[in-house]
Amino acid sequence: MATNASNTLYAALRTLPVQLPDQVTGGSVWYTVGAVVASLLVLEQLVYRTKKGHLPGPRWTIPIIGKFADSRSPTLEKYIESWKSGALSAVSVFNIFIVMSATNEYSRKIFNSPKYAEPCLVASAKQVLCPDNWVFLNGKAHVEYRRILNTLFTRKALSIYLQTQDAITRQHFARWLIESELSSKPGTLMNPIRDLNMVTSLRVFCGSHIPDHAIATITEKYWVITCALQLVNFPLAIPGTATYRAIQARKEAMVWLEAAAASSKRAMAEGKDVECLLDAWVMEINEARKQGKMDREFSDREMALVVLSFLFASQDAMSSGLIYFLQHLADHPDVLAKVREEQERVRGGDFERPTTLEMLDAMPYIKACVKETLRLRPPVTMVPYKATRPFPISEDYTVPKNTIIIPSLYPSVMDEEVYPEPEKFLPDRWLDPESPANANPQQYLVFGSGPHRCIGVEYVMMHMSVVGGVAACLLDWTHHVTPDSEKTQMIATIFPKDGCIVSFRPRKHD
Q: Which parts of the sequence bind heme (predicted)?
């Protein structure tokens, strides 16, 4: 069999426009092929060692796949070990050279250097979210686009979204109570929170322009997208791979999101009231045109891609934040008691009263709790960028062009000089204006930094405050602690390894 294979390869080589000596034998062909492969593998190691330079990291890389096996089951604990190895460290996966930062200084430098680096999220992100999605813009084009989107997160716009958030939160809590009463066992919080977030996000972003059955479809499909947005996945989008499945899921979701954009444009043209983010966007565009401040069109597809990108943040990152928020409140009854005192005072004892922006303004304690949850368990621990040119990040190291360079957020928010007892949940650290936490805002990288800093910071704080506040008013819940409760799993964002096992009861008021 080996002889036949050799003869076949030899015959194929003879058809190439390369003159092969007549005396070449099957054995020598295999020797030549082996020599070429061996040379390429040696070259791979030399290229890796050259790019790595003096940085900490594996001395040699596993041929072809590199650290792919480790990346298939990432944990926060593994990354912490990597960050401890040095301010900058290197690794290779599928010949993708990666440099990770572990200090606030280098992470901020990456975030704030659009001349040298652009966001790429993960290697498969452009295939999944589309390369023309606004999140991949850089420079002036990004600044102009972001200026338009900023109008969707003004106080006026947030007040519209808040009504939807409060109503849907209450609906889901009522369902949780019914399900808890019917079940004799506690359940994980993962899926209920993801469902709450997806329904809330789609109603906030798309309003009634998207039907209920489409929300169910997108919820299912977006989980497929989430699973493909790991730091590392198989690089080719071929059938059977996570990236391929995510692309198909995105196509199905986009059908509904584009239809919602078209419906919003029709509704605003008919003079209907603004009820969601798409409506607010269409009205902003119309007003800007009237004033001569805008002459461009936003297609249905373009608007749908923006919503698609917002869903990634509002679904995955927000779900992570809310799961840990409810877990922290359950694990710290003294903190929950203070949250409840604040809710009763602000709401005047009327817990059915819908939340307003004015109420939220009077709730500094729950905001401190939200901020502390996001510090202690930042949903996104790192945000991959790509070096667009050689990047002199330090005096003795230049990141090669096309390197994936990753600013890590977690080490910054665990700095014990800025956050004493960083492993503890201490919301009070945010109530003192002179505290080290408040005196060093540059250390709080939960929302990133620079031109690509999260555009929805106020939306996040508002949503988490509403969900946590209404939960404190209406629910009693118990966190059933397991050995995996404090361990993490990473699925694009981080979650408790056990899914956060809880049971709910209606809260009784005196």
A: 454
